[in-house]
Amino acid sequence: MVVRNICCIGAGYVGGPTMAVIAYKCPDIKVTVVDVNEARIKAWNDEDISNIPIYEPGLEDIVAEARDRNLFFSTDIEKAIDEAEMIFISVNTPTKTYGLGKGKAADLKYIELCARQIASVAKTDKIVVEKSTLPVRTAEAIKSILDNTGNGVKFHILSNPEFLAEGTAVQDLLNPDRVLIGGETNEDGFVAINALVDVYANWVGRDKILTTNVWSSELSKLTANAFLAQRVSSINAISALCEQTGADVNEVSKAIGMDSRIGSKFLKASVGFGGSCFQKDILNLVYIAKSYGLNEVADYWEQVIKMNDYQKRRFASNIVKTLYNTVSGKKIVFLGWAFKKDTNDTRESAAIYVADDLLNEEANIAVYDPKVEKEIVYRDIDNLNTRTSELNRKHIEVVNDPYEACKDAYAIAVLTEWDEFKTYDWQRIYDKMKKPAFVFDGRNIIDGEKLREIGFVFRRIGN
Ligand code: UDX
Ligand code: UDX
Ligand code: ADP
To answer: Which of 270, 271, 344 has the most ligand 2 atoms within 8 A of CB, as the residue to mutate?
Structure first.
């Protein structure tokens, strides 16, 4: 079967870039990305390409080439479903904030809505691809909804988890380590799997396209994210020990990373991992393990999150301790709010939690991030519901000029590893600050020796 028409439900961080690259690489396939969020779709269609709603290096060029050629963004969800042979579901699956599984299980309400909408609209057979990260056995749930409410048409469900990382999404999509496709292990299932394999084979070597059963595919995605997060928590645990013992975590990372069995990537100690996936996927894994009575397995993975929470709290409390046990009324500058560099995404960013702890100590915070908008910063901190939004606005200012931000500041905390922070005129910053001037590098990117020569009191993670 040859796919000519693809629809993707959800125009977010996953659906948007993924479909843009499919369209870019497969000019013969019409790709329509739909979303209920009208503003988002409008932004994807903006004539000024720099206004597309997601910032990713290289994405603008890809969208500029494919858009209105074979890549379309629309709010007409039903029409796009009707026309497509293959439908990707790429809607958000946040952790449940209510009821059974609250704080742990994935909230599947958006997925279920999509499945019901597909079922009600479809008049021809469809291949439905789950692209969002979902708990193991979601495909089964989608299939059950589709088969029982459909119009007698046949649905084939595939799991095709996305492994792109934000900030490098375009490169990850153009040149993936592997593509994983899970499907039913029967004749119809193989036909559906092969249809999707053929789409990717337009630019990915077939040896890198793995096919498995649905459940292996779903579990692989959760496991990959759990392992990656575990590496960060493991090195962060060692960073705490380094700070007490005189070892340097950068040296330890390098030394262990040269062991080819361990590998050098993903061993950067930091203020803590963030992003929409790691915590959510581990919580999911924990929830699934518990639901099968595997309590030891659940506890093992839960520790990765506990260590991450500890690292964020530890960073905040180190600031307070170092500033003579009080930050009340003191201005502290945050360089960076995004959960990592080269993205405007702030979901679960460590900065949010560090800010919350410091606000509890009555600090004043000035936030500078090159890509994050003011309202997003306030939304993030308001969402914690720790204090009123009036109080949050009173104690947090969001600024456009990092040098202005540092005027009369007592301390600077580096929360995101944006490259531009490395090349700042630190003497100019020093001159504007209260003395002693403190820098807390939560990302180990700043040249500490240089700052100490200027006169800063410089602290970083794991040293
Ligand atoms: C280990 C370290 O590898 C080595 O660098 C250090 O100097 C000493 O400790 P060793 O204990 O000799 O070496 O063997 P290793 O190959 O690491 O295996 C340790 C145990 O882990 C074995 O029981 C092995 O069967 C088990 N293992 C290893 C697994 O169960 N799965 C694996 O994937 C790898
Ligand atoms: C992650 C996975 O990498 C990706 O495969 C999956 O599809 C989605 O989840 P993402 O969350 O976009 O991607 O970014 P990632 O680069 O994995 O970073 C996650 C967090 O870990 C960031 O906050 C980052 O700063 C932090 N991190 C990463 C570290 O603190 N140290 C490291 O060594 C690596
Ligand atoms: P992700 O990082 O998984 O891509 P995002 O939140 O960035 O998550 O994107 C998910 C998108 O899915 C949002 O733009 C949201 O409006 C959209 N969405 C959620 N539910 C539906 C639905 N039932 N129909 C269409 N779009 C939906």
So the answer is: 270
